Structure formats: structure tokens, C-alpha cells
Amino acid sequence: MLGGHHTGRDYADAITARQSDRRARSAFQNLVLKMARPGGAIFDFGAGPGIDARFYADRGLTVEAYDVDPAMREYFSVHCRDYIQAGKIILHGGTYREFLERDAGSRGYEVDLVTANFAPLNLVDDLPDLFAKLHVLTGRDGIVLASVLSPYFVGDLKYGWWWRNALRLWRDGHFSVLSHQGGITRRRLADFAAQCSPYFTLERVYRGLPSSGEPCPRGVELARTGRYAWIRVATCRFMILQFKKRAAATVGE
């Protein structure tokens, strides 16, 4: 994670300073382009300063975006001003609770793909409520693609906070560590699968960085790899999760 609390312009500068962060963003963006329908619609949750939103709009996608932080939205509004004025990007604000309770309205189009890059899902402790909202926002074959901090990252084993929470991770499936942004919750794959049900199914997991020379990371299908999928993502700080929307008939069963 970035040191200290960065927001707005400071965040944009910090998150683009390191090569590893730039590679992680590029890998995520390339996955989005593979999954998005040409000329389709994306909802960017936890959109931050609008770096990804502008990238998607540059490539012909319609983007709705939400971020809870006013400073992030202020920078976003400047960074994406031309697309906002053209109606290609719509930026939503308000508290997280307001976001959950806001009427989806009538867009005239369906959102094909929800994106959440650089770990906004790690800042959400009520994931079932979020997935319920995303189920409403997306079309029939909707996908959620989320980059999250991995609890399996071997590089974190040097920190005392990881070892102090190892038992909770094994027993409860998740643990939280306080930061300048509040609680950052790291979850096992099985916990994400449980949290997204009955609205979505966790289908695939990708390393947060592709292998050298590859534009996109290679995902593993969880139905095939099962409990050992975590081994494939243990050498990367981020893992990218792909959730598939469940049919409306299965929700609540």
C-alpha cells in the first residue's frame, strides 16, 4: 500500500510513481478491454482520481464512476472534464450508504462490467450489500472485475501484523488492519466467494501482475483448482477477482 494517506492529486502522483503500480494498473486495464463489449458500458467503483475511467473512455467505452472521497472526485472532475461534458463519463458522489440506497434510475443502457481497481473492495466491510447493489446495476451477463490486496502474499510474511492475524485468516476467512483510510480487510478466496453469494459467483482469480512479456495475467478457474488456487497468486501483492452475475431467479433461494 502507499505510505500515509494520499487523496486527489497526491494519490494520482503516488500511484503512478512506481513501475510495479503502473504495471499492475496496465494489467488490470488490459483485462477490462478483453472483457468489455466494444462500445459498451462500465461502472467504475472506487474510481479514485479517474485514471482508469479516462483510459476506458479513450477507448470508446461509456463510463459511470463512483468514489466516496471528495478530493478524489475533485481531481477526477478536472482530469476527465472533456468526457464528462460530452456525456461519456458520469461521476457519482455521496456517502457509501447513499450510494447503496440510490435508485439506479433509467440509463437507456445496461452496465456490462463493474471495475474496482487498486483495492476499494478491501475498504468495504459489508460486501453482501455491495454485491446486491452491483447486481441491480448490471445487465444479465454482468461481470465484476476487482483488484484486491492478497492475504496470501509472501512478501507480507515479514510483518508482525500478518502473523498476529494469521489465525483469524485461517479461522474466519478474513482479517482487518487499521490504516489512515480506516480498516483494510484482507479476505481469502473462499470468503470472497461466500460474501458475493447469492448475487454473484467468484469464477476466476488472476495474479495482479502478468508474467514478463504478457499484456494480461493468466487466470485460474476456481471450479477446477479449488482450495489450491491461492498458491498461484502468492507471489503478488494484488490478486484480480472475476465475479459472474447470477440469474435473478437464483437470488434469495
Describe the structure.
- By secondary structure, the protein is of the alpha/beta class.
- It has a single domain (about 10-150, about 190-245), classed as Vaccinia Virus protein VP39 (Rossmann fold).
- It contains 10 helices and 10 strands.
- It has helices at about 10-15, 20-35, 50-60, 70-80, 80-85, 95-100, 125-135, 160-170, 190-195, 220-225, and strands at about 40-45, 60-65, 90, 110-115, 140-150, 175-180, 180-185, 200-205, 220, 240-245.
- An 8-stranded mixed beta sheet has the order 3-2-1-4-5-10-8-9. Strands 6-7 form a two-stranded antiparallel ribbon.
- Strand 4 (about 110-115), helix 7 and strand 5 (about 140-150) form a beta-alpha-beta unit.
- It is globular and about 50 Å long.
- The termini are far apart.
**What do we call the CATH topology?**
Rossmann fold
Put simply, the count of helices is 10
Q: What is the helical fraction, as a range of percent?
A: 25-40%
3D shape: globular
Q: Going across the major beta sheet, what is the strand order?
A: 3-2-1-4-5-10-8-9
CATH architecture: 3-Layer(aba) Sandwich
Low-confidence stretches: none
State the end-to-end CA separation.
Answer: 38 Å
| CATH class designation | Alpha Beta
